[in-house]
Amino acid sequence: MVQGKIERCSIGRRDETRPARRPLGTCHTRKPTISAIDRLLETATASHRAGKLAEARSLYDEVLALNPAHPLALFRKGLLELQDGRPEAALALIAAAAAADPGSARYQFGLGNALQALCRWREAAEAYRRVLNLEAGSFDALMALGVALQRGGELEQAAAVYRDALARKPDDPAASSNLGTVLREMGDVDGAIRLFEAACRAEPAVASHAVNLGLAHCQRRDFCAAESVLRAALALEPNDPDAAFNLANALRGLGRSREAIEHYHHAIAVRPDYAEALNNLGNAHKELGEFSAALAAFERALLARPNYVLAMNNAGCLLRTLGRIDEAEDMLRRGLAVDPLHPALHDNLASVLKDAGELDEAIACWRRSLAIDPSNPATHGNLCFALSFQSLEPQPILEECRRWNARFAAPMRRVASAPAADPSPHRRLKIGYVSADFRDHCQSLFSVPLLTHHDRSAFEIFGYSSVERADEQTQRIARLVEVWRDVHVLDDAALCALIREDRIDVLVDLTMHMAGGRPLVFARKPAPVQIAWLAYPGTTGIDAVDYRLSDPRLDPQGFDSHYTERTLRLPDSFWCYDPLTAEPAVNALPALERGYPTLGCLNNPCKLTDRTLELWSGVARALPDARLLLMAPPGRHRLRLLERLAAHGIDGRRVDFVAFRPRAEYLRTYHEIDFALDTFPYNGHTTSLDALWMGVPTVTRIGATSVGRAGLSQLFHLDLTDLARESDAAFVDAAVALARDLPRLEALRRSLRARLERSPLMDAARFARNVEAAYRRAWAAHSDSMHGSHSQ
Predict the structure, then answer these.
(1) How far from the centroid of its chain's Cα atoms is residue 126's Cα?
(2) CA-CA distance, 24 to 490, in Å (whole number)?
C-alpha cells in the first residue's frame, strides 16, 4: 500500500468571500445607497475571512431571513459549511445559489467542490465542465476537473485534462504533479517520474512533490532512489505522515523491515487513524516473525477503518499462519461481505479451506478468484497445484498447467531467451537452485543431502533464496553452496537478470507452483537448461522448463505424455531423505500394550479427500477394534471431518486428532501409531518417509498420477511392495493382514529405520551422483543441439 498526494485546485478559496459584482448594463450617476442586506453581508464576509465561523454563520442566517433566495448569501454560507466539515449542508446551499444564478461560474465551481467533498466524482466533473463552458480555458477549472476525474477512476480523461492545463501553464508544479499521479496509476512510471522531478525543480521546498516522486520510485522498485527522495521530503516536513509512510515502504522494499517499523510508527504518531500505515506496520512485523505485534497492528487498522478489506485480508493470512483456521476463515469471509469481488480474499480463503481439508470448496474459491482477476499467476498456480490433490487422472492437471503457461509464461518466451553459453559437454557446470523454502521446511530434508554431496570439482553450485525470514536452516544451506543469493526482494525480471549475469548453465526449480515459487523467472528462460525437481513430481506446464526429475516407479513407461517437460528418470528414487535429527528414538509397538491397532495418517487434511475416506472405510469395517489418529486443525473443520468420516461409515468415536505441531513433536506422534494408511489420489511424500523413519510402515494405494505413486516408489527400496496395492480391495486386504500380524509389525518397528538408512532413500552420495549424471545428460543434449545449430 502506497500513499501519494493530488494537488487540489484553489479556485473558490482565494476570493469566494469578496463582494458581489454589480450587474452590467446599468449606469449610475451617483453612489448607490447600501442596503441593510449588503451591510450584513459585508460584516458576515469580514467575520468569515477572520475565521469567526460561528459569528459569520449567524450573520448569513440574518441575511437569509430577510431574503431566503439571496444567491451570494446562500453561496457563502455553503462555503462556510464546507469549510466546517458539513458537505451535505453545503451542497444544499450552494446548489440553491447555482439554481438562482446558473450563469455564475463561481457558484458552479463551489457546487463541484461540495460534490467532491461527498465523493460524488461524476457530478462534480459535470459541475466543473459547466464552469469551463462559462469561462473557457480556465486553468483552475481544468485542474479541479482533472481531480474529479482522477478520483472517479477515469484516468485517461483526467490525463487529457491535466495535459490541457499544462499546455496553458507549462511550468505549473501542481499540474505536473497531478498528471504524474495519473500516469503512475496508469503504469507509465517513467513518465510520472519526469513530471514529479519537474514539480520538485519548480517547488523544491514542497514536500508533497518529493513524496510523489518517492512513491513512483517505489513502484519502479528503485527503492534506493525512493529512500533518498523520501528522506529529503521528511527533512522538509518532519511531521508529514505520508513522507514517513512511503519511506517505510521503501525500506521494506530494501529488506530493512526493522527500520521501516520506526517510520510507520512516526506516521501513526502524527496521524493515529492512518489505516494504511497500521496495515503495513503489521506486514513489517510479520516479515520479522513478530506475529503478535503484526496481528495487533492489523486489528488497530480495522479499528481505524472497520471495512478496510486489505487489513482483513492480511489478518486472515496471518491467522492462517498461526494455525487459527476458523478465525482466518471468519476474517476473510468478513472481507468478502464488504467486497464480494475481491480476488485476493477468494484466493486466500481457498488456501485456508485447503488447510482445513475442504478441498472441493477451496478449488471453487480459486476458480472464483480467477474469474474476477484472470491476470494473477500465483492464484492460477495455486489452482494447478490443488488439482493434483483432487484429480484421479493426469489430464485435468496437465490441461490447467498448459492454460497457465499460455496465459503467463508464453509471452515471456517471446521477449526473452537463454543467454549463449559455452556448450562444451565436459566442462565444470554452474548449477543454480531456486527456492522459497531454504529454511526450516520439509524441503530441507531433501535439499541438504544433495547440496552436501555435490562434486565441487565438476559443478559450481549457486543458491537463489526467496526466503522472507531466514533462520538457522537458511544459514546452514547457505554454507553448502559456493554462491548464495538472497533474492527475496528482487522481482522476477531482476532475478532473471541476476541469473543471466551469473551465467548459470542448469537452473533447477525446487518450488514449482507451490507458495513462494518463481515460475515466471523460469518462463523468461534465464538459463540454457531448466529442470523441475522436489516440490512434487508433477508438471509445471511451462514450455521453458526443459526437464523434470523422476524415477521409474513414479513414472513408468507411457507416462511421458502427462507432462510438458521431458522426464529424466533417476535410477533409484526421486527423493533422498535426511531427517536432520536422530530424535526421537523409535518406541515399542503400541498395539502390544493396548491390545488393539492404531492406524494413523499425519498428512495435510487437504489429502483427506472423499476418495481417501471411501478407501479407508473398508479397513474400518474389517478392523472394528482399530482406532484412527489424524492430523487436523481444531475447530469446526475438525467437526466437519468427523461428519465426512461418519458419512463413509467410520464412527467418530474411533477417531482421535492432533493439531499441527513443530517437527520434534510431530515425529513423536508416530509413537502412538502402529501403521499408517496412505491418502489417495495424492499419496504421502515427506510424511511417509517420516513415518518409515519412526518405524511405522505405510499401506498405500497406487494411483494413475505421479503424486499417487509415491508410496510405491518409497516402499520399493525397502522390499515392502506388498504394502502397495493397485485396487481398493487389495488395499483393504493389505491393511487388514498387517493389523493382524503383530509379529511382523513389531519386527518392522525395530528394523525400518536401519533399512531406510541402508537404502537408496538415504544414500546421499549415490543420489548426488545420479542427479549429476542427469544434469550431464541434459547438458549433453543442449551441447548437441548447439553444435547442430552451428553446423547448419
Answers:
(1) 39
(2) 67
Residue 787 parent element (H or E):
helix 764-791
- Amino acid letter for position 765: A
- Scan for cell 541402508, then name that residue: 758
Distance (Å) of CA 368 to CA 335, 337, 361, 379, 388 = 15, 15, 10, 10, 19
**Contact yes or no for 158/142 (Cβ under 8 A):** no
Please tell me the distance from the alpha carbon of residue 51 to that of residue 106, in angstroms, as a whole number: 21
CB 544 within 8 A of CB 525: yes
Helix (H) or strand (E) holding 630: strand 627-631
Measured between alpha carbons, how far is residue 340 from residues 348, 368, 401, 416 in Å? 13, 10, 27, 38
Residue 744: how many CB atoms within 10 A of its CB? 13
* Apex 378 CA angle, 374 and 380, nearest 5: 50
Provide φ and ψ at 198, rounded to 5°. Answer: -65, -40
Per-residue pLDDT tens over the stretch 226-248: 999 999 999 999 999 999 999 99
Residue 60: which pLDDT band, with cuts at 50, 70 and 90?
A: confident
Q: Taking the CB of residue 656, how many other CB atoms lie within 10 A of it?
A: 13
Half-sphere exposure of 702 (CA within 13 A, CB side): 18
Locate 31 and state its grid cell.
453612489
What's the whole-model pTM score? 0.87
Q: Model confidence over 305-352: pLDDT tens digits? A: 999 999 999 999 999 999 999 999 999 999 999 999 999 999 999 999
Task: Classify 128 in phi/psi space as left (phi over 0), alpha (psi -120 to 50) or beta.
Answer: alpha
pLDDT range class, residue 26, cuts 50, 70, 90: very low
Q: Count of residues for the chain?
A: 792
Distance, CA of 183 to CA of 659 (rounded, Å): 50
Asked whether residue 589 carries a pLDDT value surpassing 90, the answer given is yes
Q: What is the pLDDT of residue 296?
A: 98
Residue type, 488: H
459-465/429-435 β-pairing = parallel
CB 519 within 8 A of CB 540: yes
What's the average model confidence in pLDDT over 655-670? Answer: 96
Q: Residue 44: what pLDDT?
A: 82
Over residues 190-205, the mean pLDDT reads 94
How close are the terminal C-alpha atoms of the chain, in Å? 53
Give the CB-side neighbour count of residue 384, counting CA atoms within 13 A: 27
Given a cut of 80, whether residue 755 has pLDDT beyond it is yes
Cell of 581: 535429527
Give start and end residues of each alpha helix (H) in 439-559.
Answer: 444-453, 472-478, 492-502, 519-523
Q: Which domains does the chain have, with CATH numbers?
A: 1-19+35-186 (1.25.40.10), 413-569 (3.40.50.11380), 590-762 (3.40.50.2000)
Whole-number Å distance between alpha carbons of 300 and 249: 19
pLDDT score, position 47:
85
Name 122's Cβ contacts closer than 8 Å, sequence gap at least 6. 148, 152
**DSSP H helical segments within 429-552, as ranges?**
444-453, 472-478, 492-502, 519-523
Q: How confident is the model at residue 45 (pLDDT cuts 50, 70, 90)?
A: confident
Type of residue numbered 596: Y
Q: Mean pLDDT for the chain? A: 92
- Assess contact for 245 and 277: CB atoms under 8 A: yes
Cβ contact 465:438 at 8 Å = yes
- Judged by DSSP in three states, 548 sits in strand
Q: How many other CB atoms are found less than 10 A from the CB of residue 83?
A: 15
